[in-house]
Prior knowledge:
This protein is mainly beta. The chain has one domain (30-226): Porin, CATH 2.40.160. It contains 1 helix and 12 strands. The strands form 2 sheets. The chain has an 8-stranded antiparallel beta barrel with strand order 1-3-4-6-7-10-11-12. The protein has a two-stranded antiparallel sheet with strand order 8-9. β3 and β4 form a beta hairpin. The two termini are 48 Å apart.
Amino acid sequence: MHVRVALALAVALLGAGLPPASGQVITGPVARGDVAVYTGLFSLDSDEVDPPGTQPDYDHWINTALFDVSAGYYWTDHLKTEVEALWTSEGQSYGSTVVYGPAGQIGWIPHTSRVSTRQFGVAQLWQFGRNAMFHPWVGAGVDYVRTEHEIDRPAQFAYPTGPGPAPPPVRVPALHQQTITHDAVPFGSVGFKAYFNERTFFRTDLKVQIRSGVHHVVWKLGAGVDF
């Protein structure tokens, strides 16, 4: 009796130490997590930072270079939680604000805007395919956004025009104004992931932040590794 019990225990211990059979189904995600680095283009709607009534000289978008790092944790082969840190170079745009003459005539005074951004975000992603060689994904999350905005306007004279006699020039003093804002902004994102080998991948993302409208658009590409 004791011999039989000893043999049964030995077989159980040996079985526990053996690798799974090739036909056995492995549960759990193929990868536990990943890290990646990126570069790309950050486009900010200048209406979100410029003073009310600003008329842009060209369009409403300020474009800058971005740099980004991300880390993700796979709950399943399809569901992943991801955190990222992003920072941009300084972007610049030109615009004009209105100045009024004594009888309501209107003139415009030019200024220069400079903007840079720092962000930290958390997102939930859903990827299609079980870590296939090429697979798309969609995601949604929230970014904490720190925006530095400077306005420079030299001292100048404005020449309002309108009905009635031409008013005298309006002297406008120089202005240097710096503001820093902190916001929590929701976003949606799409992209794809393509593998070079079992662990190393290429990835591209398109992210749109929404506030009163489209706050900014991010397009980035990068490379990373699964672990």
